[in-house]
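User: Show me sequence and structure for the first protein, then do the same for the second.

Assistant: Starting with the first protein.
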Amino acid sequence: MLTFKTARQLEHLAQTFVALGGVARTARLLDEGVSRHTLRIARDEGLLQPLRRGWVAAPGADAELVAAARWGVVLTCVTAARRHGLWVLTEDRCHVACGPHATGPRPDRATVHWARPVMQRDPDDLVDPLPNALVLVATCVPHEQALVIWESAFRLRRVDPTVLARTPLPPAARRLLAEARPFADSGLETLFVVRLRWLPIPITPQVWIAGRPVDFLIGDRLVVQLDGGHHVGAQRARDNAHDAELMLLGYHIIRVGYSEMLEEWPAVQRRILDAIAQGLHLAR
């Protein structure tokens, strides 16, 4: 039976685990005031799981963090971008990073990046700092998907572009740094601009018309609205009412759904080009 003192120590360990994401180095737990005696008791009681030398996890800890600690890698690239809350279009498999001179076995169902990081990793890191992840994204995924992630990072203010500009970025990352803007309201908006920037017609995002912003105004009168998963219920009713106001003011509206944008882009582009061919973007 556990003594009151031991129970309090185990409670402190549990709280520390929560603060550290459920997976931690034993050295970090000791720094946080957890005694070796408490760690032994916790292991005997099944309250922590040894992963590899120097790393332990709480029961039910995040599976990705547990795997990263067990393999001695860091979650990075699109996997880290997702975990940092960025807009990620696709993630084919888990992406992890190893030091350029790391040895030993590595997970066989993950994409392993060996590049030297632009920002030093803390020994406790299991998720790569975002600048490192963005640099790897730049060379790992198609350009437009990478741009979506970079603009998401800027929009959410997760990274400072001026800081990135002073780091030794590879050419692909330099290109994204020059192109990325923080103004896109979503990843769909980033894709829309990238895919139609060849048009010799102004495409202006977030224009206020009739008391509300529209996603894009092409030319003078063609409005394009990109509908995400929120376009239901009361939101849809408000959008429909705003569409009616726009039409009464002489605007033409094209609405594009989430799946259309990602899976049926040629049809979406043809619809927009047909509207432009009819002069629906022009003020009359």
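Switching to the second protein now.
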Amino acid sequence: MLENLESLQFASEIPEEDRFWLYLQGRSRGLMIEACAHATFFCKVFYNLRELLQKNQNSSSPSTKSGDVDMDDNRNLKVGIIGGGRLGKQLARTLLQLVPIPAASLRISTRRPEVLGEQCKLGVQCFYHNSDLVGWANVIFLCCLPSQLPHICIEIQTSLEKACIVFSFVAAIPIPRLKLLLNHTNILRPQYHCVEDFEKIWGANKEITAALQDPVILRATCPYSPDGGIILNIKWLEGLIYAALNMCTESNVDCRQALQLLNQLFLSVHFKDCMKHEESCPEFQLPHVISKSYVKNLLHRRPFPWFDLTAVQLRETPFSQYHSTNTVLQDHLTYLYYDSFGIAPKKEEELVDLLDSPSQ
């Protein structure tokens, strides 16, 4: 209603000499959209991986009943959000609508649960008990203030299971410090870099969930895209790969099966030309994720070792070397990202699903 009424706009009362700083408003919105997009992609990937692991277990144990309540509970990805402020609320709304995560599988812990009326009406449990939330969830999103984080870490570190993934949006706390505070290695933290020439493409008047259905905005959130003036450190995507391997290890899947699941999960969406040249498609192999010396000593019927995700995001790994020079692999991962949101690549290439894409 106020869109065309200039005198009622936020910027109308700002002195001319201070209007230079208005770009920070757009940058803040861009960072919010990027964070929600990458959290959504992460949750979709891990929801699909849990389904693949469940199918794998069912095929190895055909006597398991498909309607078993415990099995259904294990298949559902349980997501916890610590912090009910602006980011926490937007993230909850986005995950419910776009993953979609059932309301029963999403819980929020915040000091003021009474302000989360909208989320409570949707069936999301909102309370203030961080350790209980961590003990229940498979994934924890940290959406609190930096000043609150040390106290929260003290509360939750003894309740954190080894396999629980902590996904931190607290930008002021670096990964080594977070690892120390939590005494935990299964941590993902996206790092964003903002360029000087900021682009105004983030849809200032759209809801976050609506913006994440706009192809132009979604393409700008792609991990490989510099559009919009906000760039994601690609080491986050590398951490995602190794987090998936950790989940396979937690499920006692041997390394060969884990690689098959990794290929099915991340490389299922192909170029149109892949039908003609399937041999050119990338495929994860053991030397792509572990060192060659370790490959020689690895028993192929054993699971992968447990990977320290904080080290993965801070150092060079075998996957770093494989990924950095393999543009075909980068293209496939880009197309997977687009496909998970239901949009086409920029050039409108046809996506061909050769391996029964788990993203739908």
